What does this fold into?
Amino acid sequence: MTLDLDTSTDGVLTADTHLIQSFADLNALKQDGARTVIVEAEGTMVRDSEGNELIDGIGGLWCVNAGHRRKEIIDAITDQLNQLDFYSTFYNFTHPTAAALSVKISELAPGHLNKVHFGNSGSVANDSAVRMLHHYNNRLGRPNKKKILSRIGAYHGSTHLAIAMTTPAYSKGWDSADDLVHHLRSPHYWRHGGGVSEEEFLDLLVEDLRSSIEKIGAENICAFIAEPIMGAGGIIVAPEGYHARMAAVCAENEIKYIADEVVTAFGRLGHFFASKDVFGVTPDIITTAKGLTSGYQPMSATIISDEIHEVISEPGEKFLHGMTYSGHPAASAAALANIALLEREQIPERVRTTGKIFENALRALDDMEIVGEVRGSHFMMGIEFVKDKETKKEFEEHEAIGLKVAQACQARGLIARPLGNILILSPTLILSEGQIHKIVGILRESIAEVSSNL
It folds into this structure.
């Protein structure tokens, strides 16, 4: 049996008046033509309710790594539901797919990260990491060691705690657990380097960490959380060596290092996990979601070190944390099938080639008048638009340059994500070289069109 849904544009938009979209201007969505209805997807493409074929340049939302409508993943979910539709992993219960997935993730994760707690989203994965570390420090007799160091420009989720760890720009007008979080300087050299060399800028960032620890007190700080490459904060790549040096300072002060790999894991940068293989760091905790199932099921994982697990599993107290759907059988099956597909087709390895082609092709757009910086790595890229390339003067918010370029791209057959003056590209990882050059052509035409109308 299939659901009898009205997939016409008018039918969906009428029903959609009851749906609250995420991170949207809800008032603007009341206007005619403000919403796009996606009704079908396959491979690298999606189709809207008007029949337009669009390249999915944002991979659903950083997540459809293996591509849309992969039969292997769909069949695995269906087979699992026919065998065990649901059972929880609460108390003394487990089931084969969650257990098998925890083994597979432990094999893929670097070093001593061998224990896995499942959740439903990246926000939950990051909340779980902090809750575990708070409990860890309580069990070690360090009840004051609770503060989190994050960064200006970070994005770690939108739950009450995760949004506090996210850059303050995302919580304007909203409350969050601000008292737990201290934000370090943004590591964006192009925007904040201030005339010093990149090496000197890195020294300043490390000094900011050291001075913050001294001010707050290492005895009050439980963790530093960092994305290997900042995603929704603007695709910010820190100076080379940044993560290793920050991790070293954290280790000196008994501060745990959380790598938020919600976006960067499962092939986006050419490896299953980027922390060790790309940035030379083995964190104490890795959080991930998105590419774990390629978006086919909602699932996240908080992967912790053996040492942390040893403390929180000692006799005397229960692990009082979890969600009903933690380790859901269908989600676990989707993840196992997705990982098997990524391995069989060597997609992370392919990304090391095609991702670099994509990155270099996009960087060629920096010859355009309003393109200030093209940044990122592989299939995680951002284009920042500026009024003046020399001074890096920004466009005003009301000018909505990113949105205008995104709209021009969509009219030409490409979905890209606007973020203020930035355009984000995070496509599926199975793009062909021909599709890559088509995307760049659409971008060049769209940017030129918007620029000519300024």
Observations:
- The longest strand covers residues 380-388.
- Residues 21 and 29 are 9 Å apart (CA to CA).
